[in-house]
Design goal:
This protein has helices at 13-24, 61-68, 90-110, 146-150, 181-200, 226-235, 255-267, 286-294, 322-328, 336-345, and strands at residues 5-8, 29-33, 52-55, 73-76, 116-122, 131-133, 137-139, 166-167, 169-170, 204-209, 211-213, 241-242, 249-250, 252-254, 274-278, 284-285, 304-305, 318-319. It is of the alpha/beta class.
Length: 354
């Protein structure tokens, strides 16, 4: 293990689990977090006392200077996540995700850092997943039109013939096409870290998380994941509202598995570079997930499929975890049904004003 592993966003949903696992492995951990009100109502009670904690914003060079001192490896989890509310969020996403990453890399460069750099990336960089047309083979789908969505035609069409496409599995070398502000900033983070790695020789790994769920998820916020939104509805006695027809395919992966993937990326010998999908390898629909979570609430109402849709949502995105298995020895261990039962009662993180 390196002398100091820096975990940015260490108080967050995924970052805090990474900190816990690193501490348990005997690592010396420094965690930095801005504790922004949009994500944290108060200082979380779950912060690991065995880690060194810094409160500060990575956009501030004074924070990055303190955080990077003596760091031999960096696990960069800090980010503003989710779909947000509207385009008014755009400057905040760019500042929190891309400017903060640039300031972090600037501070690392000033210290001559060439240790491991592990980035929390996301499956959103793919946009729509991989699709096949019965006539034209593997194609990049045409954008879904508002008129089609409004009439319940949710499957993306073939750009050549207009027929509905069959979804497939996305490998790491699939074309990248971010379709939301958040997605664009995550891809920019990959490019910034990649540029740093090329200039310095630092081993860089981009972990493209799929739909992560588990304890410490944020709740009651536009930036929460769909599992958290459904959990909040069920806890309030409401039926989860499932958009489109509920047949959107995703890969739901437990946060403890994601934390373990990070530790493997930080310790693999030799280092594994490039992008890696972090997924369970078992696709499920959003409606499947809503029903599994509702089953953990006695007497809960069945999820309601609303037919509503959001601009920027993608229809299907599930990935192959084969490269992470072969290169890191990573395979998801957590059982989905048990994870949903745990999520039903697990403490979630409340932002200010929740």
């Amino acid at each position: 293990m390196p002398d100091i592993i820096l975990v940015t966003g260490g108080a967050g949903f995924i970052g805090s689990h990474v900190v816990d696992l690193l501490v348990a492995s005997g690592a010396r951990v420094r965690a930095v977090d801005a504790l922004l009100p949009a994500a944290h109502g108060t200082r979380p009670g779950y912060l690991n006392p065995e880690a060194e904690w810094l409160e500060g914003d990575l956009r501030d060079p004074r924070t990055t200077e303190r955080a990077t001192a003596g760091a031999a490896a960096v696990c960069h989890q800090a980010a503003m996540v989710g779909m947000g509310t509207d385009l008014a969020d755009l400057p905040d996403y760019v500042a929190c995700n891309d400017l903060a990453t640039a300031e972090l890399l600037k501070a690392l460069a000033a210290r001559g850092f060439d240790g491991r750099l592990v980035l929390a990336s996301s499956m959103v960089v793919y946009g729509e997943g991989r699709y096949r047309c019965s006539e034209h083979g593997v194609v990049a789908p045409a954008a879904r039109r508002a008129e089609d969505l409004a009439h319940g035609r949710f499957e993306p069409p073939c750009p050549e013939c207009g027929r509905p496409l069959a979804p497939g599995i996305v490998p790491e070398d699939a074309p990248l096409e971010p379709r939301s502000v958040y997605a664009a900033t995550k891809l920019a983070q990959e490019h910034l870290c990649g540029a740093y790695a090329r200039e310095t020789g630092a081993p860089f790994t981009a972990l493209r998380y799929h739909n992560v769920y588990g304890p410490r998820m944020p709740r009651d916020t536009p930036y929460a994941g769909v599992a958290s939104i459904f959990r909040s509805a069920l806890a309030a006695g409401r039926a989860p509202r499932v958009f489109e027809d509920g047949a959107q395919r995703r890969d739901f992966v437990h946060v403890r598995d994601v934390a373990r993937a990070n530790v493997l990326a930080l310790t693999a010998d030799p280092p594994v570079t490039g992008p890696l999908n972090v997924a369970s390898g078992t696709p499920r629909t959003v409606l499947d997930m809503a029903r599994a979570l509702a089953a953990a609430f006695p007497g809960a109402a069945e999820p309601v499929v609303t037919g509503e849709w959001r601009a920027g949502d993608v229809r299907h995105v599930v990935a192959s975890p084969e490269r992470a298995r072969a290169a890191l020895g990573f395979a998801a261990d957590e059982d989905f049904a048990a994870g949903m039962r745990e999520l039903a009662t697990a403490p979630l993180r409340e932002p200010a004003g929740a």
